Structures are given as structure tokens and as C-alpha cells.
Amino acid sequence: PTTTTTAYRWDIPGTYTYNVAPGWSLPAYNFKVKLPHGLTCNRCVLQWDWTCANRWGSSHGKQGMGYGPQETFRGCADVRIKP
Fold first, then answer.
1. What is the reported pLDDT for 23?
2. Boundaries of each Chitin-binding type-4 domain copy (predicted)?
3. Would 36 be classed as within a structural domain?
4. Taking Cα atoms as reference points, which of 40, 41, 47, 35 lies closest to residue 5?
5. Torsion sign across C-alpha atoms 32, 36, 38, 40
């Protein structure tokens, strides 16, 4: 959690890469997260941000793929968390 307004917000560590080749199809990503013990809800919203590093840019005197402003994709889903 980062603040009281995002008390149930977690960053998922890790690095994910894939190559796009001719005839590619959309990849599916599966993430495992550890929720606080006893957390349940019937009507929750799962929000996600995916910041890419696939654009050429520069920041702090360095340049290359992934530097500078990058694309961010966002989405959400209605979920239920059962014990």
C-alpha cells in the first residue's frame, strides 16, 4: 500500500518481455498476488496499470529503449474475493 487512499494497492514485482513475430496473437499474462489475510469482498474493482518500455527516449542524460516517457495501458475488472 502506498497511501491511505490506495490502502489496497500493490505493485507486482518482476520483468516481463516477449517478442512480436509474424502471425503473433495477443499474449495472456497471469499474475499471482498475495492478498492480506482475511481480505474478502463481494463487489470490488481490480485496477491495473502496465507501463511499457518499448519506445526510444531519453532521461537523466541517457537514451535508448525504455528511457523517457513510455506508454501506459490501464484497465479494470469487477471481481469478487472469496475466503
1. 58
2. 27-79
3. no
4. 47
5. negative
Tell me what the mean pLDDT of segment 11-23 comes to: 52
pLDDT in tens, 31-73: 667 777 888 889 888 887 778 888 888 988 998 888 888 888 8
Asked if residue 59 belongs to a domain, the reply is: yes
Number of domains in the chain: 1
The candidate with the shortest Cα–Cα distance to 52, out of 35, 64, 69, 39, is 69
Partners of 79 in the beta sheet? 44
Is 76 inside a domain boundary?
yes
Domain presence at residue 70: yes
Range of the domain at 61: 48-83
Q: What is the DSSP letter of 5?
A: G
Q: Which residue is it, cell 519506445?
A: 55
